[in-house]
Structure formats: structure tokens, C-alpha cells
Design goal:
This protein is α+β, with helices and mostly antiparallel strands. The chain has helices at residues 9-20, 35-50; strands at residues 54-61, 66-74, 77-83, 88-92. It has one domain (9-92). The protein has a 4-stranded antiparallel β-sheet, sandwiched between helices.
Length: 95
């Protein structure tokens, strides 16, 4: 695993919000957006693809930020990857 795995309240809450989200693209949440938002979205989406992730979604959004996440498998386990403007976190999904 190339990411530090956490099971913090922040990541658990983000996962709960992720499960209720159905937004994927910036145009679904913004009428217009900055180049920085587009760059951040592209980087997150690219990471998702590189990890063979699935169900990429925008979790929350506002004027100055958005967060996104996706699910991926590694070594037979399923993980949730969560990105904010400041960091990224990973949590193992326990079924």
C-alpha cells in the first residue's frame, strides 16, 4: 500500500458523504470554475484512473474549494481515497 491508511472521524464522515453524492464533473456543481479547480480535479481523476479506482465523485463543494473521492482495491482489500484542497486521506472499507 503506497498510502497511509487512517480510520479517523474526518475520513469516516467524508465516506458517508461520498456514499450520498452523485456528482462527478465540475460542471455538475459549478457554473464556472477556476483553472486551479480544473487542475485539481484532473489530478484527482488521474490518480483514480492510475489506481484502477471506481465511482469517482465530488463530495462537497463551495466557492473556494471542493473535495472528491473514489474507491479502489489493493491487496484484496477495498479502500476509500479522499482528497481536499489541503491533503488526501485513505481509509479501508470494512464490510
Amino acid at each position: 500500500m503506497k498510502y497511509k491508511v487512517e480510520n479517523t472521524k474526518i475520513v469516516r464522515n467524508a465516506y458517508a458523504s461520498y456514499r450520498m453524492s452523485d456528482k462527478v464533473r465540475l460542471h455538475e456543481v459549478y457554473g464556472s470554475w477556476s483553472d486551479e479547480k480544473e487542475k485539481a480535479w484532473n489530478e484527482c481523476y488521474k490518480e483514480c484512473e492510475e489506481n484502477n479506482g471506481k465511482n469517482f465523485r465530488i463530495i462537497s463543494y463551495g466557492t473556494w474549494f471542493f473535495s472528491c473521492g473514489y474507491v479502489f482495491e489493493c491487496e484484496g482489500k477495498e479502500y476509500f481515497r479522499y482528497h481536499t484542497a489541503y491533503n488526501a486521506r485513505t481509509m479501508e472499507i470494512k464490510h
